[in-house]
Amino acid sequence: QENQHKPVIAIFANENSAEISDQIQSRVGSMGKTKVVIRKGDPTNPRDLARTNIGSASSVIILDKDTSNDAAIISTILSIKAADSDGTIPVIAEIDEKTHSEALSDATEGRVLSVQSNQLIARVTAQASRQPGLAAVVLDLLDFEGDEIYFHSSKELLGKKYSDALTSFNNASVIGIRQADGTILINPATNTMFKSGDQLIAIASDDDKINFTGVNTEKPSTPAAAKPARKRAEHLLVIGWSEMGNAVMNELAQFLPPKSTIHVVANPDLVDVSEFPRKKFGKIPVSFSAHRGSISDLAEAGRLRKYDEVIILAYREGISVAEADAQTMLTMLLMNKLFAEEGNGVEPTRLVAEILDSRQAELARVANADDLVVSDNLAALMIAQISQNAELAPVFEDIFDADGASINVIPMENYTKLGQKVSYAALVKSAAIRGESAIGYRSASVAKLDPSKGVYLNPDKKEEITPQIGDGLIVIGDLEK
Length: 481
Known about the structure:
By secondary structure, the chain is of the alpha/beta class. It has helices spanning 17-27, 46-50, 71-83, 98-107, 117-130, 134-142, 162-166, 243-253, 298-303, 321-340, 361-366, 375-388, 393-400, 424-433, 444-449; strands spanning 2-3, 6-13, 35-40, 60-62, 91-94, 112-115, 148-152, 173-178, 184-186, 199-204, 235-239, 261-266, 280-281, 284-290, 309-312, 350-355, 371-374, 406-411, 422-423, 437-442, 455-457, 464-465, 472-477. It is built from 15 helices and 23 strands.
């Protein structure tokens, strides 16, 4: 809410106020000009909730403490409905079950916007194992430090095709159209025409940077002539497990070639029995080994065969967040030692790890994962983005749901010849021929030094780069299976 132009965040929870204050201090530090007010009470009780002056809030965020049950969230939404008689304040709720999300949206006529954090984390984790740098790309897009997503009206686009729009803004990356009736089209067909009342959806450093610079007439870049290699069976080792594991594997199995395998090694004492891995995901068989001994026992699992990828998932049952992250980092160190041993094969094993607490991210990078999925950051940033602009909800839903367009990091040789200078505009045009909307590129040489870096979102169309092996073009499109 606003108080004489000074932003105010009111936190209302049935928790100790001093503990909440300490957590904010340790995670955020200085809040600048933002004032934080903490009140203790029961959010599911309308009388308690009335003490927060909820009617003056610009938006309400409901965070999920129990990741296995939406009951408290639903009760809190009903409490807000009782306390806010006007019913005009947008509510962003962290929901676990998709059916609950859909029901709440229908029952509140779209006033309640749901974020399914677990599904978001699972999808990014699964795709990060398939596409180097994907996790860093998603975090870069969601944070508030650089480029963000905006809606923009451009009379110059009236009657033009979507393919024309892709290269008509030097300082903005076009990703879709919001039609006059509110329908969101992310990465529509390139021949889709802009009609009266339509707005483009674009990534830019600010909304005033989205300026029409004319349809670019440069020719698209020419991809390398080499045929893609035939997909061979892959063997994955998953260390650690939680309720997230089944969602990650469900997503991942869709993209694994035939005859691939998944082997899970986890401590059953730290996993709810109902969440144990299934014996098969799609057509991909899954084997499971329990381990309760020292962490060095994991080395034996790693030596059983040459794995293409190792995915380390954080435990969420019977262990603190700090302990879970410490165990993850220790496992990362052990796996890297194993990778360095003689006989690990010519092709390197990719290591993707999940960290629960973003405060541990810098330490975790020392343990040298190829990609790091920082779970609390993904969920928090998504919720923060929607709370600041509720109109972005359907855009993110389209990009991060299981169907349709998604963010992908595709090898650069699919768009141009390596080692030759090329303009970014030519790469955008090459991507458009494939039915994709390019939003940036990733430098493998920079990412090798720090996996959290090397991502360049929304570069100027005039920029010239010389792609090297391992580099990727960041696009929004349908991921090929």
